[in-house]
Amino acid sequence: MSLGNNIKKYRKELGITQEELANTLCVTSQAVSKWESGAGLPDITQVIPLAQALNVSTDALFGFNAESFDIKLAEEVKKKADELRDSGEQSQGALSAVEYLDKQCDSNMFNYGIYTRYVQAVAHMSRYVNPKNSYYVGLLENDGRQWKQIIRQAESRAMQVIRYADNKKLTDECHYALAWLCWHTLEWDKGRQHIEALPSISNNMLQETLLPYYINRDTEEGKKSWQAQIRDNYQNYIRAINKQIVYTAEAMMWVSPLDETEANCRWGIAIMDEFMKNDKMIAHCQGFYRETYKFLIAAYLRNNEPKKAAKEWNTLRAKIDEYVNFCNKINEMDQDEIVCSYGIKAADNMKSYTKEYIDSKLDFILGQLESLSSNEVYTEFKKMI
After folding, report:
1. Per-residue pLDDT at 254
2. Percent of the chain, pLDDT > 70?
3. Same domain, 254 and 346
4. Mind listing the pLDDT tens digit for each residue in 318-357?
5. What is the pLDDT of residues 147-205, one digit of tens each?
6. Are residues 60 and 74 in the same domain?
7. Last residue of some domain: 169, 199, 229?
8. For residue 353, what is the DSSP state?
9. Rounded to whole angstroms, how far apart are CA atoms 10 and 13?
């Protein structure tokens, strides 16, 4: 939208005439008319008084949405951080992501989306630092002071988000990340405080239950909105269930007997297979599906069963190839049609789910599996895949 259209829009929202705005700025009504028609532009000295008269920021006056810019920038920064995290050796990748995000926080003061990504990256990195909980022992082992500084920085930035961001999603993400950080650093009492600050499904009073009832289905557009809301509801519920399946699989891989871990993982995988019979849910299962298989394979490797591990890896690869082909087919459709049918999150997932993308993910998973098993067992596993 042009400057002239913005001036006209905000003037009408205030309910004032061109002449009234002109009198406030000590210019003629003809000048305001020229601005709004695009035939002329206000002098640079008039920009701030004009924004004040219209009760908007100068960013808004020129059509620059600072909030949208911040969100877009945070998404771009997160994507770059994820690439760093998932490249090369796992623990070093985690540290590289934290260091990159730290610089981005310093360069983008008060971008609470970037602050939150930093806190999440530190929480992820924490699994590689504490020897009692880590996949990999050795990261920063000779520099505990640096790790303490990183923790303090994460807590400080998280508290800024929690206190000032006025964004419940970011606040919840910070509490969630800090709870994991506290668990890995053995500060369980502090971690429980963050857990208690998070919402719970236990009371069963959820937005999703009621939202469809507030959509008027008397029009075709209303019916489409109603169907989309129900689709989104199922996607949200399914992601919550899948996350629980993955986290349980990870915990059991570490502490439970193989038969119990195997039974739990297969039960979870069967649930996701059922969910994915609805093609609108596939994108919201694939990542969780992959992670559940990863922990099942890790359990076999940790119990000296490389042959079983290889069999499950090959099964997973076949399932992933199916999804890549599914995404290729869907992406032949018009992008707006994809969003309308599957939702924004699923559309983004399917757009990025290329063979190159998943090959890099699988290489990263293989690195994780190698760190979770003995050299002899992993070598035997690699020969069979």
Report:
1. 92
2. 95
3. yes
4. 999 999 999 999 999 999 999 999 999 999 999 999 999 9
5. 999 999 999 999 999 998 889 999 999 999 999 999 998 899 999 999 999 999 998 89
6. no
7. 199
8. -
9. 5
Total domains in the chain come to 3
Residue 183 and residue 240 in one domain: no
What is the residue range of 59's domain?
3-64
One domain for residues 324 and 344: yes
How high is the pLDDT of residue 28? 93
DSSP 181-212: HHHHTT-HHHHHHHHHTS--GGG---HHHHGG
Tell whether 288 and 247 lie within a shared domain: yes
Q: For residue 58, give the CATH number of its domain.
A: 1.10.260.40
- Domain stops at, among 46, 64, 82: 64
Tell me how far CA of residue 171 lies from CA of 119, 127, 165, 205, in angstroms: 11, 22, 8, 20
Does residue 241 share a domain with residue 105? no
pLDDT of residue 57 exceeding 80, the answer is no
Would you say residue 287 lies in a domain? yes
Helix runs in the chain, H state only: 3-14, 18-25, 29-37, 47-53, 58-61, 66-85, 90-107, 112-125, 144-164, 168-184, 188-196, 207-210, 220-255, 258-275, 286-302, 306-330, 335-342, 344-352, 355-371, 375-384
**What pLDDT score was predicted for residue 260?**
98
**Amino acid sitting at position 281:** M
CA distance 177 to 118: 10
Q: Are residues 299 and 360 in the same domain?
A: yes
Q: CA nearest 150: which of 185, 195, 199, 179?
A: 185
User: What's the token pair of residue 45?
Assistant: 């000295």
Measure the CA angle with vertex 338, ends 332 and 340; round to 5°: 155
Three-state DSSP state, 121: helix
